[in-house]
Amino acid sequence: MTNLEKYNRIFCDTFQVEENVLNEKFDNTSVEGWDSIKQLCLITSIEETFDIMLDTEDIIGLVSYFAGKDILGKYGVIL
Questions:
Q1: CA distance 8 to 20
Q2: In whole angstroms, what is the distance from residue 78 CA to residue 33 CA?
Q3: pTM (2 d.p.)
Q4: Each residue of 27-71: pLDDT tens digit?
Q5: Structurally, what CATH architecture does the domain formed by 3-15+29-74 represent?
Q6: Contact (CB, 8 A) for 4 and 79
Q7: Contact 35, 71 (CB under 8 A)
Q8: 27: three-class secondary structure by DSSP
Q9: How many CA atoms are closer than 13 Å to the CA of 32, on its beta-carbon side?
């Protein structure tokens, strides 16, 4: 499984959505149910899957599907 496939699976599992909805509009203001609990689940899954520890700024900044891609790049994860 590629890193992109793993990343997409995290979002699909966390938000119970199909992969085809993961786009530039998938963010915390437009996704129903993206609350603090889902945010924690998302962060935990990302950290465990990619064996990284996100800093506080990145946790706060992970507000969309695309923002998460940029953040992972800072940790050397190529999607």
A1: 10
A2: 28
A3: 0.95
A4: 999 999 999 999 999 999 999 999 999 999 999 999 999 999 999
A5: Orthogonal Bundle (1.10)
A6: yes
A7: no
A8: strand
A9: 2
Residue reference for tokens 């590629």: 2
Distance of CA 8 to the CA centre of its chain: 8
Q: Which residue's entry shows tokens 């945010």?
A: 39
Q: Which residue has the tokens 């599907």?
A: 65
Alpha-helix residue ranges (DSSP H) falling in 1-79: 3-15, 36-50, 56-61, 65-74
Per-residue CA distances from 30 to 26, 60, 63, 64, 65 (Å): 7, 17, 10, 9, 11
Side chain identity at residue 44, one-letter code = T
Q: How many CB atoms lie within 10 A of CB 16?
A: 9
